[in-house]
Amino acid sequence: MPILTDIAVAAQTPKQHQKAAHLAKELGIPVTEPTTSNHSLLLVVTEERLELRQCGPKAPGPVWVDFTGGKTDYRRRRGGGRKQTLVRAIGVKGKNLPTVLDATAGLGQDSFVLACQGCRVEMMERNPVIAALLEDGLRRAADDPAIGKIVRARMVLSSGDSLTELAKIPANHRPQVVYLDPMFPHRSKSALVKKEMRILRTLVGDDEDSDQLLTVALRVAHKRVVVKRPAYAPPLNGPKPDLAFKSKNNRFDVYLL
Ligand SMILES: C[S@@+](CC[C@H](N)C(=O)[O-])C[C@H]1O[C@@H](n2cnc3c(N)ncnc32)[C@H](O)[C@@H]1O
Fold it and tell me: Which region, left, alpha or beta, applies to residue 94 given φ > 0 means left and ψ of -120 to 50 means alpha?
């Protein structure tokens, strides 16, 4: 659930003012100047993209959604394809390419991995600021010569709370797999946590209702529900997982239906 409301939208240059004002209205947050603002977080409209900046002397660099470069691109090209633990947990095998509902989309990284392996992924994100960042990343990626086709054909985003939205899915549109990656409560070694996750946590806090989300997901998925957990964390409260796929830092609990 959102814990921080001290956020505003800013335009990088006067050229982006109109876009920034429109976005601020849509999100119901104020508009400010990037240089004089005293908000903790700024959603900045730049010439190229939308980015989230944490303010203050020790703030990490900005966060934006980039499917086309950096480590996301490296993982797409060299990350192990179908051998990736997430992909195996979802059940991608042979010609089996399940449809996936990523009910906790975040910055869309896991959804992108699955789309690159051929799955159609519907993403749902309840935090409007994160949904706006993801929407912007998808829009830019859709024009990219290397991945545009994948993104346009296989990735769709809805802004909303999966706890209520999943129940509205008609029987003939139920996904084969529901994927959950809720925020896990803080632990002290948080310096190890990536910049993206730290800034996301500032914005959304811990997803304390994830046990309920598992209950809803189990009603909606046709074939399986997959839950990503830190390796040290217990499964969500609910039925015992049928399978667990382990990677170095994470575990994917699988509930077969
Ligand atoms: C750990 S992040 C997910 C990261 C994502 N797997 C990725 O690869 O970028 C968890 C996200 O789930 C979202 N979330 C949690 N519960 C949700 C719900 N009931 N409906 C929609 N989004 C939810 C949070 O707002 C947060 O952005």
Answer: left
Residue closest via CA to ligand 1's atom 1 equals 183
Q: Is the pLDDT of residue 3 over 50?
A: no
For residue 13, report the distance from its CA to the centre of ligand 1, in Å: 31
The residue ranking higher by pLDDT, 120 or 40, is 120
Specify whether the CB–CB gap between 117 and 97 falls below 8 A.
yes
Share the mean pLDDT of the chain. 92
Domains, in order of start, for the chain:
7-54 (no CATH), 70-256 (3.40.50.150)
Q: What is the pLDDT of residues 101-147, one digit of tens each?
A: 999 999 999 999 999 999 999 999 999 999 999 999 999 999 999 99
Q: Is 37 in the pocket of ligand 1 (CB under 6 A)?
A: no
| Most distant CA atoms of the chain, gap in Å | 55
- Cα gap 235→211, rounded to integer Å: 9
- Distances in whole angstroms, Cα of residue 117 to Cα of each of 79, 96, 151, 189: 11, 11, 12, 33
